[in-house]
Automatic annotation (TrEMBL):
Taxonomic classification: Bacteria, Bacillati, Bacillota, Negativicutes, Selenomonadales
Organism: Megamonas hypermegale
GO molecular function, one term: nicotinate-nucleotide adenylyltransferase activity
Family that this chain belongs to: Belongs to the NadD family.
Protein name: Probable nicotinate-nucleotide adenylyltransferase
Pfam families: CTP_transf_like
Broad enzyme group: transferase
The reaction(s) this protein catalyses: nicotinate beta-D-ribonucleotide + ATP + H(+) = deamido-NAD(+) + diphosphate
Length: 196
């Protein structure tokens, strides 16, 4: 079986927390590659997002030097809300039956999983790898209580107190974002005057 990681997110903007956990899962699970999928119209985020084009460009800039990272427009290209179940089904069609998908998810999102669209079905057709995140509990009890059939594994990863929200706030306040995201992403944000 081929093994492919999926890193979904709004990436508004992408930062080293995203890159580091994607690399850790790639390494631990011997994945062929990790596909970063910027979300188009995320059902769980109601704040105004930076345009999908900008978020895609920054994701590409941050990942292009890594030969086993890829960026997909699969969710941006779809009209209507982006549901992970639709994305995984489309990828399964593209890659065929000999590919297993590993969806990478931060600890902050685990408790939201039961609200995801068609989550029962999703938990059966896709593996989930949950990674640590500071200030968030890292436990599966809520999933275990609600779903009998699921495949979620917890992976111990270094914890980085980094978020896109913090980056956006730092830029607004005029603070440096050096080392929190890549140099190319910083340049792009400056050039496009994002988050001011
Ligand atoms: P925002 O603050 O705008 O919500 P974010 O930093 O949480 O941004 P997202 O694009 O929402 O980034 O997250 C995409 C995925 O990456 C989610 O599964 C999230 O849990 C995970 N993630 C983001 N930052 C970290 C981090 N520092 N450590 C571990 N996982 C992270
Ligand atoms: Mg988030």
């Amino acid at each position: 079986m081929k093994k492919i990681g999926i890193m979904g997110g709004t990436f508004d903007p992408i930062h080293v927390g995203h890159l580091m956990i994607a690399e850790a899962v790639w390494d631990e699970y011997n994945l062929e590659k990790v596909i970063f999928i910027p979300s188009a119209n995320p059902p769980h985020k109601h704040d105004v997002l930076t345009s999908a084009k900008h978020r895609f460009n920054m994701t590409l800039l941050a990942t292009c030097s890594n030969p086993h990272f890829e960026v997909s427009t699969i969710e941006m290209d779809r009209v209507g809300p982006s549901y992970t179940i639709d994305t995984i089904k489309a990828l399964k069609k593209m890659y065929g039956d000999d590919t297993d998908f590993y969806f990478i998810i931060g600890a902050d999102c685990i408790h939201e999983l039961p609200t995801w669209h068609k989550i029962d079905e999703l938990l059966k057709i896709c593996k989930f790898i949950a990674t640590k995140r500071p200030s968030y509990e890292f436990d599966l009890s809520i999933i275990e209580k609600e779903f009998s059939d699921y495949n979620i594994q917890l992976l111990e990863t270094p914890e980085l107190e980094i978020s896109s929200t913090d980056i956006r706030q730092r830029i607004k306040k005029g603070y440096s974002i050096q080392y929190i995201t890549t140099e190319q992403v910083q340049q792009y944000i400056r050039k496009e005057e994002l988050y001011l």
